[in-house]
Design brief:
With 133 residues, this protein is α+β, with helices and mostly antiparallel strands. It has helices at residues 2-7, 54-72, 118-131; strands at 14-18, 21-25, 35-38, 76-80, 94-99.
């Protein structure tokens, strides 16, 4: 579906169409003005985004953040990338959601947990660091 939007074959409410990516309104927005930013190439997850494309893509995301805040007068934005789990469309996309104080969105959309102690946190940190490529 997103490849069709990038190619211009599927209609979308485009915000930007640039070499670094395409930005368009989410059809099921959290709040009006919720924008999705996608790279031109079909990639499923963020780790597939080539290093040479990364700066331009995230510069576009930064510009969309500023445009959403300025153009809509929002107090800020929530920026997120779902990677596999909760990724409703299997194409890398970055959400830029306008936020205003008192909009009802509270923190993250999932419950929080705690580490059982420092040893537990150290174990998780060590496992992630060991897998760092």
């Amino acid at each position: 579906m997103f490849c069709g939007i990038v190619a211009g074959e599927v209609p979308a409410f485009r915000v930007a169409d640039e070499p670094d990516g395409v930005a368009f309104l989410d059809t099921r927005p959290v709040f009006k003005g919720h924008v999705l930013v996608v790279p031109r190439a079909h990639l499923v997850t963020l780790d597939e985004l080539p290093a040479e494309v990364l700066p331009g893509y995230f510069r576009l995301v930064q510009r969309i953040i500023v445009a959403v805040e300025t153009g809509l007068g929002s107090g800020g934005t929530f920026v997120a990338v779902n990677n596999k789990v909760s990724q409703s469309v299997p194409h890398l996309h970055t959400h830029v959601v306008p936020r205003t104080k008192g909009d009802g969105l509270r923190g993250f959309f999932w419950p929080r947990t705690r580490y059982t102690g420092d040893a537990d946190a150290i174990d998780f940190a060590r496992r992630i660091a060991a897998a760092l490529a």
